[in-house]
Amino acid sequence: MTSVPLNILTWLFRLAAAIIMLQTLYFKFSAAPESVYIFTTLGLEPWGRIGIGSLELVASILIVIPKTTSLGALLAVGIMAGAILSHLTKLGIVVQNDGGQLFTLALAVFICSAILLIIYRKQLISYIPFIHQQA
């Protein structure tokens, strides 16, 4: 990760994932009708909405801190996998005539975070105490 273009690219992935997650928090935390509809449909209203919003906030913060990018990316991948699965099984791609925007944003965060996990895999492995890296 020493090359300048890779560093710029990783920051683009980090900022894209974090900004998308952060901008959706307003809707979750303010109980916007679309968020309430989504989490009611999933049987998770209101605690699921607030809890997942809180996890997205934590993931966003961890992603932008260089020493914890891998942990934030891992958390974001998990959250977005749940969101994508919810869209594919219960919600549908289009939710309340949004044209699939929420699904697309979940995919974007998932892809950016998965790429970050690949780039920062050694950092993630370093957090597992019983795995020893070889030089």
Automatic annotation (TrEMBL):
Keywords, A to Z?
A: Membrane, Transmembrane, Transmembrane helix
Record's bilayer topology term: Multi-pass membrane protein
Primary localization class, coarse: membrane
Species per Swiss-Prot/TrEMBL record: Mucilaginibacter dorajii
Q: Which domain of life is it from?
A: Bacteria
Query: Transmembrane ranges?
Result: 7-27, 47-65, 72-95, 101-120
InterPro entries per UniProt: DoxX
Localization:
Membrane
Its name, as the record gives it, is: DoxX family protein
The record's annotation in Pfam families points to:
DoxX_2
